Amino acid sequence: MAIEKIFKDDASEEKGERARMASFVGAIAITDLVKTTLGPKGMDKILQSTGRGHGITVTNDGATILKSLHIDNPAAKVLIDISKVQDDEVGDGTTSVVVLAGELLREAEKLVAAKIHPMTIISGYRMAAECARNALLQRVVDNKENAEKFKSDLMKIAMTTLSSKILSQDKQHFAQLTVDAVMRLKGSTNLEAIQIIKKPGGSLKDSFLDEGFILDKKIGLGQPKRIENAKILVANTAMDTDKVKIYGARVRVDSMSKVAEIEGAEKEKMREKVQKIIAHGINCFVNRQLIYNFPEELFADAGILAIEHADFDGIERLALVTGGEIASTFDNPESVKLGHCKLIEEIMIGEDKLIHFSGVEMGQACTIVLRGASHHVLDEAERSLHDALCVLSQTVNDTRVLLGGGWPEMVMAKEVDELARKTPGKKSHAIEAFSRALVAIPTIISDNAGLDSADLVAQLRAAHHEGCNAGIDVITGSVGDMAELGISESFKVKQAVLLSATEAAEMILRVDEIITCAPRQREDRM
Amino acid sequence: MAAVTASQPRSSKTESYVDNKRKEDIRQANIKAARSVADAVRTSLGPKGMDKMISTANGEVIITNDGATILNKMEVLQPAAKMLVELSKSQDAAAGDGTTTVVVIAGALLKQCLTLLSHGIHPTVISDSLHKASSKAVDVLTAMAVPLELSDRESLIKSASTSLNSKVVSQYSTLLAPLAVDSVLSVVDPAKPDMVDLRDIKIVKKHGGTVDDTQLVKGLVFDKKASHAAGGPTRMENAKIAVIQFQISPPKTDIEQSIVVSDYTQMDRILKEERNYILGMIKKIKATGCNVLLIQKSILRDAVTDLSLHYLAKAKIMVIKDVERDDIEFITKTLNCLPIANIEHFRAEKLGHAELVEEVSLGDAKIVKVTGIKDMGRTTTVLVRGSNQLVLDEAERSLHDALCVVRCLVSKRFLIAGGGAPEIELSRQLGAWSKVLHGMEGYCVRSFAEALEVIPYTLAENAGLNPIAIVTELRNRHAQGEINAGINVRKGQITNILEENVVQPLLVSTSAITLATECVRMILKIDDIVNVR
């Protein structure tokens, strides 16, 4: 006898073929959405927010597009997750990973239709991925020993990453900028020390790297605008009055003079607090909260530069770069660590005045000031720059470098094809499919550039038969030598793309049932 | 094996064909939307351009021909159209003038792009060629420009009046142009000669009179009355001015407080105490010799009470109350004084000095003027008058544009001819350049060159001239080497525009072209609109 009902109302269950179909369709739809952004001639998307304000974002960054999508399909969510992970781990290749996973699934769909068991496909894919990885490992170039060469590798990687972004026109300039910034980090991947400030106006070319820290705030009235050998106290404290924070506390008095006394006492408390702060022997005080008129004047009298309302990010970073600690009580000056810097001064960028801290304790810190026509341009530029910085900082740690422009994919495809020929049994179909999925990436790159992909990929395949440095040169629209053109990619990024895409595809393939739980009942508010 | 690989790209080709159809549609829709925005402001270009009346959602009416203002108030929703609005804002930020021009150029470029796209040229190719063309255009413009010295006041005035001529207030350009020049020059810091902070120029609008009465004040103007409540002085010579950030009123604590009155005599005592308290404060103020008090507005409590005003009046101290906190910096900079946040810190060295502070009647309204300030900071105040609110607002916007023009000249000291001359010259030179380029690039650059003709065309059209006749004539003259031939709208013919004193800063033209190109390239590269959270 059949069980009548296992699930709650509204919960649904899809099994076997249907479940697999649903995940294939979802994953492939996501892939098709982002694949036009791939490569140096990839297109941008407008993201139109349906929320309040209908704000728009123009972007070409896979992770940003996917992050903001409304998605209901579980398989599509898996793809979005891998793109997020890729973003967190290596920062670049967020589109590639989704496209590769999607292509793998597209191939798998065909195999499943040809009655090959998903488990067979999975084991084939695993073998292929392992083989592809080894193929890459054999071809990597490592210039760790040669600092000069390594730097030029970094430049090439930065240029390659940036060439698919909005900054492509000025990629030389920005590549130099990012390489300089990353070299300053001396191997740490702490990108917090690189601050990016966006200021509308001017053009992208006017962006620059500043060796120091810039805070987008104003200096209080009547205070020195320039301080040398500054001792900085970074604090997060209320500078209005220390109120009794018990609800309902109130003062009951019987005459006006007493009220005046209390007011005086409040002022006195404030003055004491300021005195304590001054007693630290500082000449610059940065507070996260507002500094009211009264303490501001006290600071001005003491010749201390006080900056109010520095945003949270701002003070944490300032504390980091100047080597100070964020203080909130001031009773024991000896236990508070002060920050130091050589010079604080007011500078003007565009129309705005900013405060510039130079000669900071932590030599790694620097600031990139981005200029551009509008907020859209600036936001997108920041995203692109962030990608480049991520990749570079990863490359500094893992110095292995590959060529770009579809070269790694073709190398892998060739090896995987060899493997397919050697492997007996049904698995070889899956391995062959893996190689086809790899070839899809150069195909998409050339399609996006409006080139004849069928012709180009065939040429590329022929060229790779001998094993050379051929890749797609989208600028001239032909097959070119990637080493000569200086198109490089980080091994770490490629490896992450390969492995996480295979894993994601595997995970989705394993699914044979989708159970959608009943949505939680909303309580009726009527 | 080979058969499989061959079939695979072909299958993806058919798929991408379907996709491309949709992408083409989105691109077309974007371009159309952006162009309709450009068309909306097109008629307001040039000295004979028309104005737009905008009635905003809250019933306010604005009459203007400032491109940035029109677009800002239009509240467009289509993303590409929004980008055009942003474009005009950027131009406003970068150069301050030419906000209509930039949108019109972007519109014309988009129109050309549409044709190029329909010929099957890949958008990225167009985008790259546009970038090349625009950087070449900047070179051409720079070569055309005439260098300028800041001491050349005449030329500065000429360019300011070119900007003003296209506004409602054009008949006052002889008055406003020198005014704009003088005010900008007076705030230029000799230490940093390239920087002008327009925030150092304060524009005070006052209803009444006509634009003719607009004046430059060497000093400060408050759009407020001096406090009359208790008959205090309204004119003070040899003023010692204090800017205070505390309140002269009964004390108030931050902790909630209440005074318990238990009998009648206590009440009397409290009243007396209040009086003594205030009197004590005023005595301290008087002791420093201060005779003009500027009081910052406070939201927590009354800045002054009737009682304190009374005592201040008795102490012969002039009071101006409700000064905004944002203005304090400007005021202290101008007066060369320090704000005082506590009565205990009221010291003579924190005061500012001025020869005269007086309340002046302007029609039925009154303002307070501070003149003859000792060691005045590098600031200026402009008092704008106008017969009604609409004229007043438009005059302010026009003056802002004129100030920006002068500022542009200070930061980049080159002048260029106006009246469509640079655009037609660009069009000619780029057209010639396109002939030596190869392939698609040459084709795209030629389209860019053609698009630039929209400026002289629109200028002529708006002036009621025959645009085709004028543009062809203009082309002809430029081909003969008269690079400064432009449309003289007043005479309705083509003349050497430099001789007619129609000049504009180079920065306005270059930034209009680079910004418009950047925006168009961005629109071209978009192939999808995705709805997100």
> What is the approximate shape of chain A?
globular
End-to-end span of chain B in angstroms? Answer: 45 Å
* Secondary structure tally, helices of chain B: 16
Q: Give the count of helical stretches of chain A.
A: 16
- Which spans of chain A of ≥5 residues are poorly predicted at pLDDT below 50? none
Q: How many angstroms separate the termini of chain A?
A: 43 Å
Helical percent range of chain B? Answer: 40-55%
How would a textbook summarize the main sheet of chain B?
A: 7 strands, mixed
Kindly report the name of the CATH homologous superfamily of the largest domain in chain B. Answer: GroEL-like equatorial domain
Précis, in short:
Chain A has 526 residues and is α+β, with helices and mostly antiparallel strands. Chain A is built from 16 helices and 20 strands. Chain A has helices at residues 16-35, 62-67, 74-89, 94-113, 118-139, 147-163, 171-185, 256-278, 293-301, 312-322, 375-397, 407-422, 427-448, 453-465, 482-485, 491-510, and strands at 12-15, 44-49, 56-59, 141-142, 194-200, 208-210, 212-215, 226-235, 250-253, 284-287, 305-307, 326-327, 339-349, 352-360, 366-372, 400-403, 470-473, 478-481, 488-490, 513-516.
Structural write-up:
The complex is a heterodimer of chains A (526) and B (533). Chain A contains 16 helices and 20 strands. The mean pLDDT of chain A is 81. Chain A starts with 11 loop residues before the first strand and ends in a 10-residue tail after the last strand. Chain A has helices spanning 16-35, 62-67, 74-89, 94-113, 118-139, 147-163, 171-185, 256-278, 293-301, 312-322, 375-397, 407-422, 427-448, 453-465, 482-485, 491-510, and strands at 12-15, 44-49, 56-59, 141-142, 194-200, 208-210, 212-215, 226-235, 250-253, 284-287, 305-307, 326-327, 339-349, 352-360, 366-372, 400-403, 470-473, 478-481, 488-490, 513-516. The interface between A and B is large, with 80 and 79 residues. Strand 9 (250-253) of chain A pairs parallel with strand 8 of chain B. Chain B: It is found in: Cytoplasm. Chain B: Molecular chaperone; assists the folding of proteins upon ATP hydrolysis. Known to play a role, in vitro, in the folding of actin and tubulin.
